Amino acid sequence: MFDEDKLARIREARVRWAAGSPPGPEAAAAFKTVSGAPVEELYTPLEVAELDYIRDLGFPGEYPFTRGVQRDMYRGRLWTMRQFSGFGDAFDSNRRYRYLLEQGQTGLSVAFDMPTIMGYDSDHPRSRGEVGRCGVAVDSLADMEILFDGIPLDRVTTSMTINGPAAILWCMYLAAAEKQGVPLEKVGGTIQNDILKEYIAQKSWIFPPEPSLRLITDIFAFASRHVPRWNTISISGYHIREAGSTAVQELAFTLADGFAYVEAGIKAGLDVDEFAPRLSFFFNAHLDFFEEICKYRAARRIWARHMRERYGAKNPRSWMMRFHTQTAGCSLTAQEPENNIIRTALEALAAVLGGTQSLHTNSMDEVLALPTEKAVKIALRTQQIIAHESGVANTVDPLAGSYFVEAMTNRMEAEAEEYFRKIESLGGVLAAIERGFFQQEIADAAYAYQRAVESGERVVVGVNRYLSQEPVNIEILKIDPAVEERQVQRLRELKARRDNLAVKAALERLKQAAQGSDGLIPYILEAVKVYATEGEIVAVLKEVFGEYREQPLF
Amino acid sequence: MREKRIRVLIAKPGLDGHDRGAKVVARALRDAGMEVIYTGLHQTPEQVVEAALQEDVDVVGLSILSGAHMTLVPRVRELLRENQAGEIPVLVGGIIPEEDARELKEKGYADAIFTPGSSLEAIVACVRDLAGSK
Fold this sequence. Notes:
The complex is a heterodimer. Chain A is an alpha/beta fold. Chain A has a single domain, classed as Methylmalonyl-CoA mutase (TIM Barrel, Alpha-Beta Barrel), CATH 3.20.20.240. Helices cover 50% and strands 6% of the residues of chain A. Chain A has helices at 4-20, 53-57, 90-102, 114-118, 141-147, 166-179, 195-202, 209-226, 238-242, 247-267, 272-275, 289-310, 316-319, 339-353, 373-388, 403-425, 429-434, 437-455, 482-497, 500-515, 521-529, 534-545, and strands at residues 80-81, 84-85, 108-111, 158-161, 189-191, 230-231, 233-236, 279-285, 323-327, 358-360. In chain A, strand 2, helix 3 (90-102) and strand 3 form a beta-alpha-beta unit. Chain A is globular and about 85 Å long. By secondary structure, chain B is α/β, with parallel strands linked by helices. Chain B has a single domain (7-133), classed as Cobalamin-binding domain (Rossmann fold, 3-Layer(aba) Sandwich). Chain B has 5 helices and 5 strands; from the N terminus they run βαβαβαβαβα. Chain B has a 5-stranded parallel sheet, with helices on both faces. In chain B, strand 3, helix 3 and strand 4 form a beta-alpha-beta unit. In chain B, helix 1 packs across helix 5 (120-133) and helix 2 packs across helix 3. Chain B is globular. The interface between A and B is large, with 47 and 39 residues.
């Protein structure tokens, strides 16, 4: 970007400047990002001398999308404000969704309870004590109908955080939309459906990798033909980061997963441009402001380059990385929870400056329990203030060209590429998972971070600096213990009232299909429509596919 | 003669897969010279207690972030008692609201509870104490 003469003059001036500024009192301390990456005192054109504007940044909405995926970014349309939410039974959560929509939220995001996430019905012995606790309990289409009662599914898009049993919950959602009279081609939303990061970090799996990948590519194929507005996967770095990774690890492992899905789709016989435009991503917004912004910019550039150059995608939409962001749950502190409002605001600002397509802001009390209505409202207001009051949405990618931001973006891209080579040398993502590579990298980073907090090297306000002895005194959301009983009772009634012969027949057909090589979505859809439960469908698939087991390490 | 090393079971009962805390604590205890057995994820209370007995541990640490603590912690304690091991101290870590923490301690289901923001130093000291009081 700069000619040699000018660079030479800057270099000279810099040497002079450095000689004239004696080390300050803090010079001995290492300046590092929250991920432990070094940060220099000053960045100049010298650090980005190789930067080529057209090649490395380009224009927003154009390859390589470093500056954003839309031409006009937030001037055209603000990001979707999408608060992840769900608790109790479908009635409780339906009320919360309606409340959030009334408050100006523009999309829904469903949190399921652990039994739903793990494929157990509410009456399973392993579900005891967990029903409706950290999300909403959904056992069958009947619950899904209640969950979206009075919410028009042709106008509201919904994101569902579901992975192992994603195909089943997705089919329930599609069936619920059809019951509202909404044709499938009008239904929009996202399923997380990212099983690789489950093995790596979040650890909510059901089936082994191979059949899991089959279900995922079945979803790609069905959606591309019948549900064109659906984002079939949300390739997630969020959980990798929450599990303790660094920013670069989050970036590299998530993109490596993304490439693995692309390869699985191609291997399943799909054309890359048929499914790649519907792939979406999900990143964390942690506290280190610039590191996060650079992470998003690097992610877009890496994805575009690999999709075009390595996988031969021709459709620009296949090159475009669209992503959701959630502020970092792991950055919140139980001490002085009100401080979490500030942390979340800074993180949300980074996500916006990084060009996110949708955003969830955590509530201050989520480190203690599920959020109260009041806490959720403050979190949503945080986004609205950034959008409408701060002025940051007025221009596209305002930090581009900052020597620091571009140098850090470059560094993160280079370090991610190094991880890709390492993963390749281990035999690819699945082989690396089997060897515990990601798991160990993340556990090491988590431990290093915790030690830095313990030693005081990393300051956490209210935790290891500026401590106050006042007890925490904020209102906490309580889940009625009767939710579990009510849910189990409703499930019992459903099983008595539905056409059990039809259920049995649909499950039998699904089992046969699973033993063969047919796409499974039509069979699952048929089963959910006659009110087969999630647990019943999972049980059939477990019989054929088996279950995943992890070798625990720490 | 060298003092016997403290043996600790770190367990993840229930369905949640959030194992960051469990693993960090397990490592800190190991670095503090203890023998740590980590069960891995998705354990039933029965599996946790079986492991505790088999490994003859001095302390059981449970990590729960799914909100199921009011079911799982009492169940582990009851099973320990049924197996004549009710004296093994139980330490709980996770997202545990203050009110629940008080109840779990008052009713004798848990001997100590650590929520987010707890220091490893405090946890290590607590395990030492509990192991000594057994």
